[in-house]
Amino acid sequence: MAEINQEAVNTTTEHDTQATNQAETADSVETKEVSQDEISSLRVELAKMKRLSDKNASEAAEWKKKYRSTQSEKEVLDAEKAEQQAKRDAELADLKRYKLVSEYKDSYIQNGYPIDLAKQAAEALADNDNEMLFKIENQVFESRLKAEKAEWMKSMPDANIGNGSSASITKEQFDSMSLQERTKIYREDPETYNRLVGNK
């Protein structure tokens, strides 16, 4: 019984392989200047391949039918149960993956990821695609870094150095300056720096 089924599969596979090779050959024809004769011959080839494909499909169906007829009733029921179980297993795996992706996505959204990147990261994590996951995390990190830098630049007070003289800087302005600004005052006007620091 198994030999009959295997012969049907082998015959079908050989015919499908031939049809595929012929289709690839037809696809590789350059489309530069194709004459009407070439187009009609390609259509004939395509029709032949379609007939061959249909023939292979019907032969496979016949072999399956013959194989089923040689099986006992119990074997037929067992085969149907196995097919149904395989279908249920596939559906269960899809549902588990969907649930896992949904949980990961919610977690990424709670961590501040944009929705589209959260979904991509969740799918990459569920599929164990570390390369994609690191790429997405790096993208989120870079965008956060840019946003924080822009916010920092907005909140940074303007240095009121005036017309080049640092003598007009108040103690409060000096205290709110960055280390670079204080260093600049120290280099340009050490006397004012000492006054503001209280060393004098």
Largest sheet: none
Distance between the termini: 105 Å
Count all strands and give the number.
Answer: 0
Q: What general form does the structure show?
A: elongated
Q: Mean pLDDT, rounded to whole units?
A: 80
Stretches where pLDDT falls below 50 for ≥5 residues? none
Question: Which helices and strands appear, and what pairs or packs with what?
Answer:
Layout (H helix, E strand, L loop, with lengths): L1 H26 L8 H35 L2 H38 L4 H12 L3 H26 L15 H5 L3 H10 L1 H8 L3
Helix pairs in contact: 1-2, 3-4, 4-5, 7-8
Structure description:
This protein is an all-alpha fold and 200 residues long. The chain folds into 3 domains: 50 residues; 64 residues, no CATH class; 32 residues, no CATH class. Helices cover 80% and strands 0% of the residues. α1 runs antiparallel to α2 and α3 crosses α4. The mean pLDDT is 80.
In short:
The protein is mainly α. The chain contains eight helices and no strands. The chain has helices spanning 2-27, 36-70, 73-110, 115-126, 130-155, 171-175, 179-188, 190-197.
Core attributes:
mainly alpha; 200 residues; 80% helix
